[in-house]
Amino acid sequence: MSRRTRAAIAxxxxxxxxxxxxxxxxxxxxxxxxxxxxxxxxxPLAFQLARGYLRQHPGxxxxxxxxxxxxxxxxxxxxxxxxxxxxxxxxxxxxxxxLVFNKIARDAVCVITNPANPIANLSTAQIQxxxxxxxxxxxxxxxxGVAGTxxxxxRTPASGTQDAxxxxxxxxxxxxxxxxxxxxxxxxxxxxxxDRNAVGYVSLDFVSGTHAAAFNGxxxxxxxxxxxxxxxxxNFWMVTRGPAxxxxxxxxxxxxxxxxxxxxxxTHWVPLK
Amino acid sequence: xxxxxxxxxxxxxxxxxLGALAVVVLLTIALMLTFVAIRAWPAFQHNGLxxxxxxxxxxxxxxxxxxxxxxxxxEDYQFGAWPLIWATILTTGIAVVVGLGFALLSAIFxxxxxxxxxxxxxxxxxxxxxxxxxxxxxxxxxxxxxPFIGDHLISAERRKSVEFVIQLSxxxxxxxxxxxxxxxxxxxxxxxxxxxxxxxxxxxxGAVALGVNRWRAMWTVSVxxxxxxxxxxxxxxxxxxxxxxxxxxxxSGGKGFAPNPADGLTFAFEPLRPLAATIVExxxxxxxxxxxxxxxAMSLVLLVSTFTLSLGAWMAKRSxxxxxxxx
Amino acid sequence: xxxxxxxxxxRSRHESLSSWRIRDRIGLALCWLAGLTLCxxxxxxxxxxxxxxxxxxxPELLFTAxxxxxxxxxxxxxxxxxxxxxxxxxxxxxxxxxLGVCTAVWMxxxxxxRWLARMVETGIEVVAGTPDIVIAIFGLALFQxxxxxWLSFTSADGAVFGRSFLTAGAAMSLIALPMVFxxxxxxxEAMPRQLREASYALGKTQAATIRSVLVPxxxxxxxxGAVLGMGRxxxxxxxxxxxxxxxxxxxPTGAIPGVDVLRxxxxxxxxxxxxxxxxGEGGAPEKAYAAAFVLLLIVLALNASVELISRRAGGGxxxxxxx
Lengths: 273, 327, 323
Prior knowledge:
heterotrimer, A: D-Maltodextrin-Binding Protein, domain 2, D-Maltodextrin-Binding Protein, domain 2, 10-stranded mixed sheet, 38% helix, globular, C: mainly alpha, MetI-like fold, 2 domains, disordered N terminus, disordered C terminus
């Protein structure tokens, strides 16, 4: 390769890199950056909130939002790697000390079954019996549309949704050992869609293609969750190391108080007010 | 300085620089091994050799470790990885054995018996399949194959028979093995086809001249000569199968269960979760020391297995070197 | 056994099967069965992905950046994942190729002391067999140490994020290294000794021989190895998911244009497919199929270039990382 060709290729690479980075760099300069990492359930909401915040207060801060799971977010903010950790599970005693959990929204968790099995209603006792394995056959559940073994779908231990389900629905009982653990809401949704005998739990956004059973007589939808009638609601947190300061505090205050933020939250999640 | 670099280098300097780079590569690899071993040590320290055995429900142990958080006590490290190890042995073993047989026959077909027009097409397609990313296989496995098996091959009576222990749904041993076999076979086919092509024509023609028919000539001469390459291909495929994490975490059962061959046909549908898939699923919780030690211990087991495999293959190849042609 | 009689032993294509033993006939039947099954399975996979891809791929998906809305099936495209894939591949192969070539040259041409050469060879075999998830978690732990803070975003407290294009690229180079190393080594070993001896006879030193004779002659093989390594990088998901931060868009860090993209996070096509499949939270299998189709096209292009390079070099295609 001649020297000129080599120089041309190097120039092209530099131009390409510049083209990719300049549009974002042009506005970046020396703005404070708010970094966040954590729960994949909270991340879509965080993206929307960041966009809304930038629209209302343009040019104030820059956002960097990564994902990795609630535990990763809590650990990252505990070690100081990011300024906000996103968590979809409540604080655990094993979390690093000195963390402050700021609640930003709430999210409904629905118990879902296959569309061939449209159970109208499940009470707390029924859910506990089914998921703990004391009831093993659909014929023992009134209102079931199928017969046969119940296939329980749960989440892996690190999941915030699993933590919420355990606290809100199961109480002191534990999910039975025969349960199949899936790593994401989407996998649970897919498993329940594909299996007539399956039952599982997902966040409200993932019920399409399945049937969401009412919980203690209240249907699982956004309206009931917002009104407070639906009981299976869990918290979304933004975790900071110590009380939030500076641009992070302004951002979190904006989320918790401004009507604009609350309306963004209200599109798919339950606002605090 | 650039002018000095462009002057011809002395042999000594060139050797030293290149050697230094090679040593840098070696040091990085050694760093990785040491790192994994050090981080894996607490798991073996608290469990001893029982780490390789079965100490109860693997999933419960993992969730206990995740919940313990930052300051685990020695009991919290308890872990018996046998169900995961057995799942890895099953999936990898069955996939490689079935894949190897199929690859050998297909390679013979491609080289010897296929119509000429089909040959170029097949080789191209096989190369393409060997390069398809595993996430695509996982996508197809979970969206197409698992529902099909769950709906059509698993009956309600079968589910009832095991309902007190596990659940039977689509994802399980059969889906994992089928997709894994489809994933690793193209690699083996490509390697074996090249090795068969590399056999000197005169050797086969000699056999045919003696009156041996085409199949026998192929089998007794070419395949035998290509044995080192076949072995190399099998080892490569085995290493890929052992390390396959993403696809298996999507398409296997999601339960750390050790499938039991004594269960008869149900054995094929039982859920399982090999070592690499378990590592991927627990990457999130790596900050809790208990689970970190055990995840690194699993990584160490995988590293040692692949290393032992290549070592075994190297020793076997040495004994085959008398008639070897390729590899 | 077939009788030869007085005819010349011509191996005709229509040799009579009746002269074969049962065992051989069964073998032949199995071969045909295997071959036809291969055609069927390969055809099914290729057709399925093509149909799904064409069904869901719209041209604007290739040029629109992903939107962070909840309903992924209606919004945005995957321009940033495509850029991420290309960027990561370039970084990975840019690190792997010089290292691989130099190591292979050292091993073939010098290789002293012998124990060191054997250890290097073993080391590269170990890396070739390492699962990519193990390389990923090692990379994450390594690049979160303080000395590597320049590679990724560092917070005000000095804690290193550890996830960026540079760190993922470094891990990817480890994955592609065995391919480049193997291809270069095979090419150098296959070169006749007369080539080197002729160069020495003309008065060139060993170093100059390597630089001006051997390496240029090995260039087709090096390119093949590099392209094979690129194929492996393009298809890898585990390293991307762990080491690239999984942000939807390319997210630069810092103030220097160009370098800030490298230090920033992003996504690639593989992590995009993973996130939009049921395994992730995107919930848009249509986008996953479309992105998977684009990924397959890239892989196909890489494969075609391997064949082109080797054909131009005059046959002798090197294997898929045979050690």
